[in-house]
Write a structure and sequence with these properties.
Elements (H helix, E strand, L loop, with lengths): L5 E4 L5 H10 L3 E5 L3 H10 L4 E3 L2 H5 L5 E4 L6 H10 L3 E5 L6 H14 L3 E4 L6 H11 L6 E11 L8 H17 L5 E7 L9 E7 L5 E7 L1 E13 L2 E8 L2 E13 L5 E11 L6 H15 L7 H24 L4
Parallel strand pairs: 1-2, 1-4, 2-3, 4-5, 5-6, 7-10
Antiparallel strand pairs: 7-11, 8-9, 9-10, 11-12, 12-13, 13-14
Length: 329
């Protein structure tokens, strides 16, 4: 075991991956799930870890940190309970389903001197890290627009819609790349099954300085794909991720104005970058453990998670107004 003992709650869809990575890093001390079958499976996969059916028993057991992979509606309450017990917390995205709940988690962690970390795993993806490094090097000049699409033939949910389930990934990337928060949003959300749970969402963000972003998410699309395009003054960076794998391309261009005032654009070079590196989830967990050890905030701290929630809520509020009035606001 490492110097940090971690308990993971949630052995359903994503929790087993977190348990595996914690065991590989030598920090897995306990597993927890209220479902007996799920708990048996987790315990069989990790026989050296203590097994708990009760979350309250987990947070008061001999662990230093708790990793929360429960349904999103439980994230904030579970995080607050762990912090009250003096445990550091890793909360899968989203941090909460309201901005106020997210702020409570961030403030409680700060008051207790504990780490609160959000699982925005794509910020630890080697392709995203390379893309951000190219932007920092000036490969495309000043960024003025971002477009992100995340589509699949889903895992449907009932307590949160596709916007709150899928878009935290895209919004976290948007905020990290734009390095500021949007000032306005216009959103349209469409439902097939339940009028209160949207299945497709389109959002346009305005950053108030001539920059913008467009985010599209859907969980009823037969083609599973994720694509991020970052538009700069001198080119476009495109990161795609599908069942076939990931790729990162840089395509440059130049905009010119002729003597008669007519604008033109010329295509420049195209370059594809190899994406290599360790597993993003492993990098993410290592960042959490480092934050616990040092006390230094991680790139995906609870404060950054709150900024994601604010942008998500801004778009949700716009969608509600559009649905009521039929006019974008």
């Amino acid at each position: 075991m490492s110097d940090i003992r971690v308990g993971v709650v949630g052995a359903g869809y994503w929790g087993p991956n977190l348990m595996r990575v914690c065991e590989e890093l030598g920090v897995l001390a306990a597993v927890c799930d209220a479902d007996p079958a799920a708990l048996r499976a987790a315990s069989a996969a990790h026989p050296k870890a203590a097994a708990y059916a009760s979350y309250s028993e987990l947070v008061t057991s001999p662990v230093d940190a708790v990793v929360i992979a429960s349904p999103a509606r439980l994230h904030a309450a579970m995080a607050l309970e762990a912090l009250a017990a003096g445990r550091h917390v890793f909360v899968e995205k989203p941090l909460a389903l309201t901005v106020d709940e997210g702020r409570m988690v961030a403030e409680r962690a700060r008051a207790r001197g504990l780490t609160a970390f959000v699982g925005h795993v794509l910020l630890y993806h080697p392709g995203v890290r390379k893309l951000r490094a190219l932007i920092a090097e000036g490969a495309i000049g000043r960024v003025w627009h971002l477009r992100s699409r995340r589509l699949s033939l889903g895992k449907l949910r009932t307590h949160e819609n596709v916007w709150w389930s899928f878009a935290p990934h895209d919004v976290a990337l948007m905020l990290a790349i734009m390095e500021s928060e949007p000032v306005a949003a216009v959103s349209t959300q469409t439902s097939l099954r339940d009028p209160d749970v949207c299945d497709i969402a389109y959002v346009d963000y305005d950053f108030g300085d001539g920059r913008s972003a467009h985010v599209e998410v859907g969980w009823l699309d037969p083609e599973k794909t994720a694509r991020l395009d970052v538009f700069g003054e001198r080119g476009v960076l495109t990161l795609t991720d599908s069942r076939a794998g990931s790729s990162l391309r840089l395509r440059t261009f130049a905009v010119r104005q002729a003597s008669n005032g007519a604008p033109s654009v010329s295509r420049g070079e195209e370059e594809e970058f190899a994406i290599a590196g360790s597993e993003p989830l492993r990098e993410e967990m290592a960042a959490f453990l480092e934050s616990v050890r040092t006390g230094r905030p991680a790139p995906t701290s609870a404060d950054s998670g709150v900024r994601v929630l604010k942008a998500l809520a801004m778009a949700q509020e716009s969608a509600v107004k559009v649905a009521r009035s039929g006019v974008p606001v």
